Amino acid sequence: MKDLPQTVFVVDDDDAVRDSLRLLLKSAGIPCEVYASAQDFLSGYDAGQPGCLVLDVRMPGMSGLEMQQELNLRGATLPVIFITGHGDIPMAVEAMQHGAFDFLQKPFRDQELLDRVQRALVRDTENRARLRHTDRIRERLATLSPREREVLDLVTQGKANKMVAGDLGVSQRTVEIHRAHVMQKMEAGSLAELVRMMMAVAPRQ
Amino acid sequence: MRGMAAPTTDVLALLEATFDAVVIMDDRGRISAFNRSAEEMFGYRAADTLGRNVSMLMTSGDRAAHDDHLRRYLAGGEAHILGRGRDVRVRHRDGSEFEVFLSVGRIPNTEPPQFVGFLHDTSLRRKALATLEHERQVNRLYLDLAQVMLVATNRSGAVQLVNQRALRVLRVDATQIIDCNWVDSCVAPDDRGIARNAFRALLMSGSDEPQSSEYHVRASDGEDRFITWRGVSLRDANNVATGVMLSGEDITDQRRAENEAHRALERMNNVSRLATMGEMAAGISHELNQPLAAIANYAQACARLLRLPAPDMPEISGALEQISGQALRAGEIIRRIRSLVRNEDVRRETQDINELIREVHTLLASDARVHDGRLELDLAPALPRVTVDGVQIQQVLMNLVHNAFEAQGTDMIRAEINGTAFEVRIATRPTDAGDVEVSVSDLGPGLAGEVEQRIFEPFFTTKPAGTGLGLAISRSIIKAHDARLGYRANQPRGACFYFVLPAHMESPR
After folding, report:
1. Interface contact A24-B297, CB threshold 8 A
2. Options 3.40.640.10, 3.30.1490.20, 3.90.1150.10, 3.40.50.2300; which CATH number does A7-132 get?
3. Quick one: pLDDT at residue B197?
4. Per-domain residue ranges for chain A?
5. In the predicted model, is pLDDT for residue B295 greater than 70?
6. Does residue B120 contact residue B87 with C-beta atoms inside 8 Å?
7. Which residue of A80, A162, B304, B340 is surrounded by the most CB atoms within 10 Å?
8. Is B295 on the interface with A (CB under 8 A)?
9. What gap in Å lies between CA B248 and CA B258, rounded to an integer?
10. What structural domains does chain B harbor?
11. Distance between CA atoms of B85 and B96, rounded to whole angstroms?
């Protein structure tokens, strides 16, 4: 499955600021969509769309901060770049604490914005690649039989076939056959690769 | 009996009629006549005194001296008492002593001489004097008890009477100012003209009505006290002014406190004005940042587009138009703020308020969309025109409408309204007086009592990110239009802000 094109989503209630951001991104060859309010964006947004958000901290209705929290709740991983006025530094700090990618004080140099946008897009790609990778591992894990899963758990704990056979009360030969199936289904070339896969899907500390 | 010439019947009748006690004695001091008044005065009957020495009526101290005086006189010496009166102490029959006024004369053509003594009982006069003295003292007490300064002068302005309170304020003794000219000796030099005029006006006024004046007196230590005076003229039986009576209240401290309070208030106003300016500066920088950010973005975008092999010219020219538009917007913001701050440059025009409202409706409607709300107009037709600064009135409306939507904006309130499309309504209507009322009402929670009290105070806000200036500025704009921005509860619920603009006086067409 090939990636969808990345889009920069701009949400700003000020018509001129919003349109100028659109043109700036366009001049740099970056596809973007603009929205006048948080509600407008949220109602049309599908979490599968890759890209990043450029968000005004201070907006009537749902503020940038509230929108960020809403996205967190939805599990959306879009990196968020806040743009702020002079007086909004405390709000920017709060946004960073809630996981914002970066913030910019306006007015700003085009390169400052474009650099941040590029970094945010890279971050999004990485996030998605990681997600896709773990998704695939989980898909493969789902194809294992219960016995195969038991064998996988024990061998990735570093146990030798003989010990696994003893733990499970089966013959060493049987363990070898299960293990070959596990390596095949998980598309793992080595035990080391199998261990890395399991670490990738293990719940984070 | 030699030398005892009895008085004639006529003389006796005269003696009996006299109110004073009369005693006649001969050259040896023996009593030859003792009238009825003398009987009453001394408690003796006349018969018991005749032929006895007059010293029986005297106190022991006087007795010895009396015979000496009499002998010396008869020997050709000087008379101590004859022809003159004096107070002497005498002795009643019961032994008590009292004072009489005694005058003694030698009866003419008597040889050896006879003397007549008139004794006037002064106790009545003394009683009257004592009563008078008592009254004087009571009056004095009244004067001195008074919390006000009391000063009486004669018609030339010399102080005749002054109470303790006045002496304390002036820090002098009575002796230092009695008979001195009031104005010249007690009034502060700068105020003497005022004081003289007030004095003259009092003397000339024919009425008993007190007249008021205010001037400073100068105390002996040089301190000036500010006094508010009430004066009346004193008049004799012929209604001729004989002087003036002044009662004065020292209001120096009160006036000082008032001035202090006034200055404190001014200082506070200055502070809050400065603070308002600071708050506004923050608001201004935010407002200005928007067009500036847009200009920077457009310009930078144009630069980038122009570097491309085939620049998108329509896009670039659109951006350039935006740049100039945003620069003008920034200028407009500055102009607006300046007119707000300086309260000048107000461009008043006679116009239709409904037109003004329709003009901002588009802008306001977008605010409504942001809040998922509905903005309704309820404009009365055929209203009188008003003379206003349209931009300012529109600013006020935008502020009120924005507040109204924000008030209804929270989820809690939405739930309360229970799904009914909530709305903000701008209404105009003619008042009974023929003026134009403009109101902005909402269906939000309205204002709680305490909030209602303070809603127009600068910096008072119920919004987390509010500056607390919107309503304060709106109110000052409306005030500059000779109107008042008011609040009332909306029916059936919510808040209603309103102002009444005076109708423009138009000559009928």
Report:
1. yes
2. 3.40.50.2300
3. 92
4. 7-132, 143-201
5. yes
6. no
7. A80
8. yes
9. 19
10. 9-121 (3.30.450.20), 133-250 (3.30.450.20), 256-342 (1.10.287.130), 349-501 (3.30.565.10)
11. 22
Percentage of residues of chain B with pLDDT beyond 90 = 29
Task: For the full predicted model, state whether its pTM sits above 0.90.
Answer: no
| Paired residues of A52 in beta bridges | A8
B322 touches chain A (CB under 8 A): yes
The answer to whether residue B3 scores a pLDDT higher than 50 is no
CATH fold of the domain at A143-201 = Arc Repressor Mutant, subunit A (1.10.10)
What is the three-class DSSP state of B98?
Answer: strand
Window A:79-118, CB contacts with B under 8 Å:
83, 85-87, 106-110
Write the ipTM.
Answer: 0.72
How far is Cα B320 from Cα B323, in angstroms, rounded to an integer?
5
CA distance to partner chain B, nearest, from residue A152 (Å): 50
**Distance from the B435 Cα atom to the nearest Cα atom in chain A, whole angstroms:** 34
Name the residue facing A106 among B289, B315, B409 (closest C-beta).
B289
How confident is the model at residue B289, as a pLDDT? 84
Which residues in A lie closer than 8 A to residue B375 (C-beta atoms)? none
Identify the pLDDT of residue B490: 87
* Residue B119, φ and ψ in degrees, nearest 5: -115, 115
* Residue B304 to residue A28, Cβ atoms within 8 A: yes
Longest Cα separation, chain B: 172
Q: What is the pLDDT of residues A123-177, one digit of tens each?
A: 999 888 888 888 889 999 999 999 999 999 999 988 999 999 999 999 999 999 9
Type and span of the H or E element at B17: helix B9-17
Indicate if the pLDDT at residue B507 is higher than 60: no
Restricting to B residues 269-288, those with a Cβ less than 8 Å away from any Cβ of A are 282, 285-286
Q: Using an 8 Å Cβ cutoff, are A7 and B281 in contact? A: no
